[in-house]
Design brief:
Layout: E1 4-5, H1 7-24, E2 28-34, H2 41-55, E3 61-66, E4 69-75, H3 79-92, E5 101-107, H4 131-141, H5 151-182, E6 188-194, E7 200-206, H6 216-228, H7 246-252, H8 259-264, E8 269-271, H9 278-281, E9 297-299, H10 312-325, H11 328-346
Parallel strand pairs: 1-3, 8-9
Antiparallel strand pairs: 2-4, 2-5, 3-4, 6-7
Helix pairs in contact: 2-3
């Protein structure tokens, strides 16, 4: 007979199933049964629990969402399969004095559709569970909201970024002079990016392309990488719009150094997922949005684990993994591995297929 998990344990098992679904790109369903308020509610509760224990599979998870809602997690199950089980259980528990209601949620679709629940039927009635009530249940299933940025991380960012700015000031001046000599226009380029919890901010970089370079090519390239899950190569090799000396800055990552100012301002961190452009974020799947649960970084887990040799989904898994495992030890490890990773990237002789489009001023 299946175990009926307590509320906290059920929520943890729900989050585990979400992670499995994210990893394997499969869906799962959750059915929530509401215990009616009536004179025989205890008998209904016992009968419902007993019926579910007999009918669910060994891979399914049964537990309490709150005092009035019993939930079932159904791995690898569609809405259709969940609805059949729900109706069978409701028919078996049918009471003359109580109407049993259920609601079905499917991950990830209902987490990507304004969190609207499916339209459900109830035994003995055609009423649907009110949207407000259904959404309230869904919130109970959600994992905890993103935790605030730890104080240790903010202190480390400010101290290291300020020291780096002072030490690298001569290099900043040298790069600025070189850019001014080879191309008219501003030395620093700013671009709107998506940051912590989806907040927009302006990300700073040394300008490596001619002024008013078209962004359509980069947008097409990013869309292609995301839709086909291919390696996240940059489009630098044959682009005539990159200024002289610009390719060196991009390949070594020196064009990113002005983001030390973003770090001091609290818009970025030394370590974290790279900040993306808004049109990229609109292409993300629900689980990929969790990369915004922490500050974007100057370097990160993806950058020190292959970067342009990895596919889009591999990059996302590194980013989401970082938001879950964030710690002082992990941040220090990433920082120590960054310089060797940059050297490897700068000397990488990987052969690339000819690209039809040119790059924009953005690190892919």
């Amino acid at each position: 007979m299946s175990i009926i998990y307590a509320r906290r344990e059920f929520a943890a098992l729900f989050e585990r199933e979400r992670r499995r679904s994210d990893r394997n790109e499969c869906e799962f369903a959750v059915i929530t049964f509401e215990i009616p308020h009536c004179a025989h509610c205890e008998q209904v509760k016992q009968k419902l629990a007993g019926t579910l224990q007999k009918r669910i599979r060994c891979s399914d998870v049964l537990g309490w969402i709150d005092e009035q809602h019993l939930g079932v997690i159904l791995p690898d199950t569609s809405a259709k399969g969940a609805r059949k089980l729900a109706r069978d259980v409701c028919n078996a528990v049918l009471s003359e004095t109580a109407v049993l209601q259920y609601t079905i949620f499917v991950y990830p679709s209902h987490w990507d559709n304004n969190r609207d629940p499916l339209q459900n039927s109830t035994t003995g009635s055609s009423r649907n569970m009110p949207d407000g009530q259904a959404n309230h249940i869904l919130k109970k299933l959600e994992p905890r909201p993103p935790q605030p940025i730890p104080l240790w991380k903010r202190i480390m960012d400010i101290v290291i970024a300020c020291c780096a700015l002072l030490l690298l000031l001569p290099l900043f001046l040298l790069i600025g002079v070189c850019i001014k000599v080879v191309s008219p226009g501003p030395v620093v380029f700013k671009q709107e990016r998506v940051g912590y919890r989806g907040e927009l901010f302006y990300c700073w970089k040394f300008r490596t392309m001619h002024v008013n370079a078209d962004t359509a090519a980069h947008q097409n390239h990013v869309t292609h990488c995301i839709n086909h899950d291919i390696s996240m190569d940059k489009l630098d090799d044959c682009d005539q719009r990159i200024v002289p000396f610009g390719k060196i800055l991009r390949k070594t990552g020196l064009d990113e150094l002005p983001q030390l100012i973003n770090i001091i301002r609290g818009e970025m961190s030394l370590t974290g997922p790279r900040p993306c452009i808004p049109y990229e974020a609109r292409l993300y799947r629900p689980w990929q949005l969790r990369r915004f649960d922490t500050l974007p970084g100057l370097t990160g887990l993806w950058q020190v684990n292959g970067k342009n040799r990895t596919t889009f989904n591999e990059m996302m898994r590194y980013d989401v993994s970082y938001t879950r495992k964030r710690s002082i030890g992990l941040d220090l490890k990433i920082l120590l591995k960054t310089v060797p990773a940059v050297i490897t990237q700068a000397t990488d002789k990987k052969e690339k297929a000819p690209q039809a489009h040119a790059a924009t001023d953005h690190v892919v």
